[in-house]
Write a structure and sequence with these properties.
It is a single chain. This protein is an alpha/beta fold. The chain has a single domain, classed as TIM Barrel (Alpha-Beta Barrel), CATH 3.20.20. About 30% of the residues lie in helices and about 20% in strands. Strand 6, helix 6 and strand 7 form a beta-alpha-beta unit. The chain starts with a strand and ends in a 9-residue tail after the last helix. The relative contact order is 0.17. The C terminus is likely disordered.
């Protein structure tokens, strides 16, 4: 099962260290999601991260940084509808319904489905799917190895998510609430 980290929305002084520690600890990919930071702040953050780590980073905002830093890919969402001309990285996307998953699955390497559980990092962002709905979606082939669970996901949920058929788990609150990043895998 793929483990993906999603950053907090604002660049902080600790971000580069946290990102490299997460990747060293076994996180497969880090999604840099910084809607509350400008392109210069994100550029400075990326410039402090080693090349080996950059190849495991997907950017959500300021997509021009993809080519500049040779990142792994770009994440599409409401604010990033189109990819740059000549784009060659991986494509990921946020989805909030089974219909969106079915619509975008063929054009993406993987998709986030959220919120699976009540969010840890977004107050009031409540679970949208029942166990029965998730299991139905898996039986129908909607949830499969290319669908990543997001929203309130913690390490305690991994066995459950695997039993449903998710290909991975994306976490923000569960990772950033730890006092220190420790080897997790």
């Amino acid at each position: 099962m793929r483990i993906i980290a999603v950053t907090t929305p604002k660049v902080t002084d600790d971000d580069a260290q946290i990102i490299t520690r997460l990747l060293d600890a076994g996180v497969d990919v880090v999604h840099i999601r910084k809607p509350c930071s400008d392109v210069q702040e994100c550029r400075l953050l990326l410039s402090t991260i080693g090349d080996d780590y950059l190849r495991r980073i997907v950017i959500h905002d300021h997509t021009e940084l993809f080519a500049e830093f040779h990142l792994l890919g770009i994440h599409q969402n409401r604010s990033v509808q189109h990819l740059p001309d000549g784009y060659s990285g991986i494509r990921t996307r946020s989805c909030h319904t089974f219909e969106e998953i079915a619509r975008y699955k063929q054009e993406c390497d993987y998709l986030f489905l959220s919120p699976i559980f009540d969010s840890i990092s977004k107050v009031g962002y409540r679970s949208r799917f029942s166990d029965e709905e998730l299991r139905w979606a898996a039986r129908e082939g909607i949830i499969d190895g290319r669908v990543i669970a997001l929203g309130g996901v913690t390490f305690r949920h991994l066995d459950y998510l695997k039993s449903i058929g998710f290909g991975g788990a994306a976490m923000c609150g569960a990772l950033y609430s730890l006092d220190a990043v420790i080897p997790i895998l």
